[in-house]
Design a protein that fits this description.
alpha/beta, Rossmann fold, seven-stranded mixed sheet, 12 helices, 7 strands
Amino acid sequence: MLYIRTTLVILVWLISFFVQAIDYNSLYQTSHGEGEPVLIVHGGPGFDSHHLTPLVNLLSDFTVIIYDQRGSGFSKENVSKDNITMKQFVNDLEYIRHKSGFEKVHVLGNSFGGLIASYYALAYPERVKSLILLSSVPLRISGFAEVSRRIESGRTVKDNLELNSLSESKAFKSFDIKTHEEYYKLFFKAYFHNKKLAADLELNLSQQTIDNMETINHLMYENIGQFDLFSKLGQFNTFPVLILHGKKDPFPYLEMQAVHEKFVRSEIQVFSEAGHFLYIEKAKELVRRIQSFIKHEK
């Protein structure tokens, strides 16, 4: 009886290990260029990394590692409340870092990726060369209070009518890629200062991203709840932080100014005539600032 029980315990452990290995190996990542390692964490939650191709191209002086978070893009996953958690996303990020072969990396978090990157830096500070928060969402739930109003103020009546029409269409409800791309390009128009540049946003959404987006978004925000990292920002004292934000970003730049004041070693640049997509609206200025920061801190 003892032998059977021991065998069953070992078998359960082996199955658990195997499933975990497949789970991590399903994460899709790519690496580009040579130089200081920059690990990009895309936003969402629920989007994938493919709209950030222009940012990857801008950072051609570095080794850029970028990946799709679980359940999005090409990272295959049956999403559930057990695997769509901040803890799991942080562990995924550490797995990608380890797989890259670099002991330490410059972690660049874009939009919601800024929050994931911040949680990662708290959990694995010894793996972080520097932290770059690019158009990050607020690092506390109270910072979202004005976001919806700011987004709506950036939309015209015509925009809202078109968004409603698209979202009610049969193609949208059937998860058609083309229709979803049309919807989200219009949706993100309000995130731009220069609305004409919204046409340059290429989302390149995968079918899995469209299928899982709403579920992942709901599960992640349910998981993090009433989060507030402000009391922990003083712990970021072993690496420098660079904050880059547009003054017209729906996510208030004053929130990031408050974050800057909490960090021990940080720099901030607010781009006055730009919104959320700095790599489109302020591409040249953005890459120069990142290059200067990383080359100084390597």
